[in-house]
Design goal:
Layout (H helix, E strand, L loop, with lengths): L1 H32 L4 H21 L8 H24 L6 H4 L1 H9 L3 H4 L2 H25 L8 H14 L3 H7 L5 H4 L2 H39 L9 H17 L4 E8 L2 H8 L1 H17 L6 E6 L2 E7 L3 H18 L12 E7 L7 H17 L5 E3 L3 H19 L13 H10 L6
Parallel strand pairs: 4-5
Antiparallel strand pairs: 1-3, 1-4, 2-3
Helix pairs in contact: 1-2, 1-11, 2-3, 3-5, 3-7, 7-8, 8-11, 13-14, 14-15, 17-18
Length: 436
Amino acid sequence: MGDSMSLDVPTLFIVSIFVTTILGLFLLFAWVQDRSIRALAWWGVAYLIGGLAVALFSVHDLYSDSILVVIANALLFVACGVIWSGARLFHGREVLPLSMFAGANVWLFALLIPGIAESAFARIIISSATISTYTLLTAYELWCGRKERLVSRWPAMIVLVLHGIVFLTPIPIIIWLPPDHHLSAFSTSWFAIFALETLIYAIATAFIILAMAKEHTELIHKTAATIDPLTSIFNRRALMDTGRRILRRQMWDKQPAAVLMFDLDFFKKINDRFGHAIGDRALQIFAETASANLRATDIIGRLGGEEFAAVLPATTLMAAAIAAERVRTAFEKVAIEIEGYPVVGTVSIGAAAASDLNTDIDALLAQADKALYAAKRGGRNRVVLSGSAEEQIASVVASQKTATAAEEGLFPHPSLAPTDLVLAISLARAQIKPAS
């Protein structure tokens, strides 16, 4: 067994050199095809450095202290540091040069200590700890970026963690086994197993890296197709598609749903007076304010220019009015001054609710848009509800009864948060007028 495995070690070295070199060039070629993912270039270079390290190992005994083995180990640690740095770059974090070369520097410094330089097993402990640390740090970087939903991220983390654990195994063996058992534990046969595991790890990791890069690019393109680049919320197409699905589901479950239409007041004057940069900032502030004052289940998007819309599932018309009023008052406060300019921004809002199973998103937005223009005709900076006068009176009365019951300790309306109860009462008593 031992002889056959020792005969395989040179073959493993040759295969490892060619495989890591080819994979490194392959990753560099993938980077040339898509230079937006700089991590591919770093990972490609790491594989080439690793291939060079294996080539140096192949001409000397692994456990010797020759200068080539010393350099080979240092290059291997640099390759591990570059892979870790590539993972940081992949998630938009900065490279840490000192940490990237720390493994190689610790290795070279440790060899200046006589006790370590003369002990093959001390060198094995340092090598194992360094490789495992960089590998587990790379897995941690992937874990930190898990908000970007990539399916290939999870197998990548599993492979990295397993590889890190495998390279930790020599440490307890050296610590716990008697010295006379060390040589048998680290025979050529065991080294061949470690070399084979590393080769499999390198191949699997390279293909998973390419899968992650492909997923990342597709996600960027998908995001670009659905997100408004200025305000970072849904664009018109995404809002309509998502709103249509939400409304269909709400109607199927016989649940209420509502939409809000927003229009920033006198936006052209803001651009003319303060410049387009301040106008753009006003749009961003409104998107941030509206998102912060709506529920996580509500969706908001920019229809174009200064017009926005929101779809509110499980929401009655009066609850939608309360949410709209919350957004209106919040924006009025934060837009008094923008970037040091007295903008005094306000927003007009129209609200509409689905009335039957046949109501679609286009019809609902048209109703809300009619209410929005009524708000603008009525003096702007206000909320107007769509629907007939009878529907408005019924909605106001129902909301006032609900709010009053909640004040008396009875159950609150399911679509109203406790902090909205006072606002519900004030809106009900204000008798918000419907759009004509």
